[in-house]
Design goal:
CATH superfamily: serine acetyltransferase, domain 1
Strand content: 5-15%
Radius of gyration: 20 Å
Order of helices and strands: HHHHHHHEEEEEEEEEE
CATH class: Mainly Alpha
CATH architecture: Orthogonal Bundle
Oligomer: single chain
Number of domains: 1
Helix content: 40-55%
Number of helices: 7
Mean pLDDT: 90
Number of strands: 10
CATH topology: serine acetyltransferase, domain 1
Distance between the termini: 60 Å
Structural class: alpha/beta
Length: 255
């Protein structure tokens, strides 16, 4: 019977052969658990007091918001830095100034939060107005998967537009796992979007969605099967303003 050391050696050999290992002394890439914590803080800044375990009041709101923003800047800067340094190392590019650049991106995200709040509130209102079963804005924010998926998407999309690698996909796939709604962070989505039920919705990278669009469960806004060379082309559909796409619809292709 082989010893445990022999089995360990075989596993370590597979690390060398196939990669898929995150070491601090090599290409240290972002930590998924850290992003989940950051997203929780961001969600609680966007909708304070609604998605958390304790009750806020006007006397503590400024302090709690400030504490969260400091934590977001610190933790997200570190994770964005890892992503940028990982890509720089992998592509043998100069990594000088990575920390400052990462911090600038995160501070730009903080500056964008009022607009992200506005957009998320329009999404919540679209859900309230678009679903006869919805009773209040608070019910929608607390329980509707489409509102959560869109809120996280808008954060991930902002980082995607700033050229941040890896991080936006971690965010989008995290909320995909929670809600069953798969939105690539590259997709552009207008205000007042309502994804009803949500399970099985897929929205591709180059998809453009206008204002006041309602999407039901099982909808795919996807691409035709294309070669990798087409990655920089528009491969997904454009949906105009005031459109409803019913359950199970599949719309493919871009240009």
């Amino acid at each position: 019977m082989r010893s445990l050391d022999t089995r360990i050696d075989r596993i370590l050999e597979s690390y060398s052969n196939f990669g898929g290992i995150n070491l601090a002394d090599s290409h240290n890439f972002p930590n998924r658990a850290s992003f989940i914590a950051v997203l929780t803080d961001i969600e609680n800044v966007i909708f304070p007091g609604i998605r958390e375990d304790f009750v806020l009041d006007t006397d503590t709101l400024r302090f709690v918001t400030g504490e969260r923003l400091h934590r977001i800047v610190r933790n997200l800067t570190n994770e964005v830095l890892k992503a940028i340094k990982y890509i720089c190392t992998k592509e043998q590019r100069d990594g000088t100034g990575c920390y400052k650049y990462s911090e600038q991106i995160v501070l730009a995200l903080i500056d964008e939060i009022p607009e992200l709040r506005r957009l998320s509130c329009t999404d919540a209102n679209a859900a309230l107005e678009g679903d006869p079963a919805a009773r209040s804005t608070e019910e929608v924010i607390l329980s509707y998967p489409g509102v959560e998926a869109l809120m996280v998407h808008r954060v991930a999309h902002f980082l995607h537009t700033k050229g941040v690698p890896i991080v936006p996909r971690i965010m989008s796939e995290y909320v995909h796992g929670r809600t069953g709604i798969d939105i690539h962070p590259g997709a552009t989505i207008g205000e007042e979007c309502f994804i009803d039920h949500g399970t099985g919705v897929v929205i591709g990278e180059t998809c453009v969605i206008g204002r006041h669009v309602k999407i039901y469960q099982g909808v795919t806004l996807g691409a035709l099967s294309v070669k990798k060379d087409y990655a920089d082309r528009k491969r997904h559909p454009t949906i105009e303003d005031n459109v409803t796409i019913y359950a199970g619809a599949t719309i493919l292709g871009g240009e």
